[in-house]
Amino acid sequence: MYEQHLPVLDPHVNQVNITPPDVVNGHRPCQTREVKWLRLDKIYQKFYRPNFYDIGGTYMQDVPDYWFSFKTEQVGTIFLLHIFIRNQGVTSFNVALSCGNKFKVDRKAETVYLQHYLKEFQFRQLGEMSHTYLTTYDFSELDIQCLKNRKLHIAVSFPFTESTDISLEVINSIKLKHDCSALFAEPIGSDFVIESADGVKFQIHRVILASHSEVFKAMLKGDTAESQNSYVKLIDVSGEDLRYMLEYIYSGTVIDLENANFGNLLMLADRFNLKGLWELSEYALSEHLSPDNALDILIIADMHESDFLKTEALKFIKENKEILSSSTFEEITNHDLLKQLCCFLSE
User: Fold this and answer.
1) pLDDT tens digit string along 206-223?
2) What pLDDT does 346 receive?
3) Which Pfam families does this chain map to (predicted)?
4) Beta strands in the chain (DSSP E)
5) Is 18 within the bounds of a domain?
6) Is residue 48 domain-shared with residue 128, that is, in the same domain?
7) Contact 98, 114 (CB under 8 A)
8) Tens digit of pLDDT for each residue in 1-50?
9) Are 59 and 143 contained in the same domain?
10) Structural contact between residues 116 and 155, judged by C-beta atoms closer than 8 angstroms
11) Cα–Cα distance measured from residue 214 to residue 231, given in angstroms and rounded to the nearest whole number
12) In the prediction, which pLDDT does 15 show?
């Protein structure tokens, strides 16, 4: 095992800051409370040279705080990326990292970003200079090709709370108890009606709608027609799609994952600014890619600017090029999307 010590920053010396201040990369100053990304350079080459490598560190003012490192490993055709953290002193802390290996490619910046959905890890009373394993990402050979000549960014944050004595299990248990699905099934005290295009009406609660969506919040202000009439009809949304959307708003999930139309739900999530439903729809669509729907999903992802879903669709099409002989390919009229597809296939 190697040892790497963080240098103390000299506030009187101008530091070269090539990367943004919220990105960890080498010894450049990055404050622990402000960090958003870990940047891994030359990651393509390092996957083919399995070893331990440094990422960089964070600071509290000018004092070294945490240091990140990684190890690359290849098992058959799977490439593994193990992430580690080392704390300077005896401490307890929470740290959150990108959850899963789905990513988007920024070709202009020559950068790959792992999804900004974070998984939190909790550590208590670690000894000084503890070198602690965090998580592992696995990539396919096609994923690795996407990383060639590009930097890899992994989302990271340090959630700070007033108390460090409450475990994540307790917090998550409390969150689970805030499920309002019973109110959706039996809308006692409802004060608003939403009707679908096909005439299905739902009795719902203003406060729940407004607390989950800024769009609904604006709609329900006192001077709008919808607010005064306690009613709105969504003339382009089916009763089934509306039910799934409202189910998500009340419960935080969609129970019938097999039958929900997540293409439509992604559009509704975009329209009503429902971040959680957007993320769920992206994930569901990416997990159900097939030769029959890959081009349709690519078009939906492009239309709603879902870069992560677009990358997943492009990767699937590259692995199944017979898709390009379908009639759907001939119907694509977006020249920018066609150009992106051709560039991706040629890499």
Assistant:
1) 999 998 999 999 998 878
2) 85
3) BTB (PF00651)
4) 23-24, 37-40, 52-60, 63-75, 78-87, 91-98, 103-106, 111-114, 118-126, 131-139, 151-157, 192-195, 201-204, 231-233
5) no
6) yes
7) yes
8) 334 444 444 444 444 345 688 999 988 889 999 999 999 999 999 999 99
9) yes
10) yes
11) 17
12) 41
Whether 198 and 321 share a structural domain: no
C-alpha–C-alpha distance, residues 155 and 218, integer Å: 31
In a 10 Å sphere around its CB, with 0-12 CB exposed, 13-18 middle and 19+ buried, how is residue 185 labelled?
exposed
Q: What digits encode the pLDDT tens for the residues 131-160?
A: 999 999 999 999 999 999 999 999 999 987
Pairing of strands 111-114, 103-106: antiparallel
Amino acid, single-letter form, for residue 238 = S
Structure tokens at 191: 């004060």
CA dist 132 and 119 (Å) reads: 16
Q: Which burial class, exposed, middle or buried, applies to 285 when counting CB atoms under 10 A from its CB (0-12, 13-18, 19+)?
A: buried
Domain that holds residue 301: 289-347
**What pLDDT does 162 receive?**
46
Q: Which residues of 194-224 are buried (b: 16+ CB within 10 A; e: fewer)?
A: bbbeeeeebebbbebbbebbeebeebbeeee
Burial label, 51 (beta-carbon count in 10 A; 0-12, 13-18, 19+): exposed
Residue 279 and residue 307 in contact, taking contact as beta carbons nearer than 8 Å: no
| Cβ neighbours of 114 (radius 10 Å) | 23
Output the pLDDT for position 14: 44
The pair of three-digit structure tokens given for residue 226, joined into one six-digit string: 């919808």
Which of 144, 168, 192 terminates a domain? The answer is 168
Q: Mark the ranges of the chain whose per-residue pLDDT is less than 70.
A: 1-19, 161-178
Distance CA(195)–CA(244), nearest Å, equals 13
